[in-house]
Automatic annotation (TrEMBL):
Pfam families: SOUL (PF04832). The lineage of its organism: Eukaryota, Viridiplantae, Streptophyta, Embryophyta, Tracheophyta. It comes from the Eukaryota. Belongs to the HEBP family. This is Soul heme-binding family protein. It comes from Zostera marina (Eelgrass).
Length: 187
């Protein structure tokens, strides 16, 4: 019942809020992490922008046996939040942050599906706006544009593309969903 009402009961990244200008945005500093990600053209996955989810869910073992190897055995990996998505119409990159016990890609199980890549992300800063509801493409684009304007107005330099972070499973009622639109920044 908790997830339906928006309870987030999985590991989430520990970030530090280094500047808050709510309700417009906050600047967050994230620690290093390991990400399992897949990049794809949605048209190759029946036009589904979220088609990478099942590929990543198979890697961690959320659906069936884990599609990975560590010491010649598969290892179930706990689900975390958020699921992160970036990219455009013809190339989407979706990622799962691996649990914090994995400090490097060498510590994480290797994917048996060649589409899944492991990546180490160093410490990074994002301008972030949080919102609830369904994260439609139009709403994300609107939030990202307003966020970009606010950041630039306040002297932050946006240094990358928008990232959507979704914290809840699809069965969470829309008003209780937690989403972040994030833009990487340098100050």
């Amino acid at each position: 019942m908790g997830q339906i009402l928006g309870k987030i009961d999985v590991e989430t990244p520990k970030f530090e809020v280094i500047h808050s200008n709510l309700p417009d945005y906050e600047i967050r500093k994230y620690p290093p992490s390991v990400v399992a990600q897949v990049s794809y053209d949605p048209s190759d996955l029946r036009g589904d922008r979220d088609g990478g989810f099942m590929i990543l869910a198979s890697y961690i073992g959320a659906v069936g046996d884990p599609q990975n190897l560590k010491d010649q055995k598969s290892e179930k990996i706990a689900m975390t939040a958020p699921v992160i998505t970036g990219g455009g119409k013809n190339c989407v990159t979706m990622g799962f942050l691996l649990p914090s016990k994995y400090k490097t890609t060498g510590e994480a199980p290797v994917a048996t599906d060649g589409r899944v890549m492991l990546k180490e992300e160093g410490e990074r800063k994002y301008g972030v706006v949080r919102f609830s509801g369904v994260a439609t493409e139009a709403l994300v684009a609107e939030k990202a544009e307003k966020l970009r304007e606010c950041l630039e107005r306040d002297g932050y330099r946006v240094v990358g593309e928008v990232v959507l972070a979704r914290y809840n499973p699809p069965w969470t009622l829309p008003p209780f969903r937690t989403n972040d639109v994030m833009l990487p920044v340098n100050d």
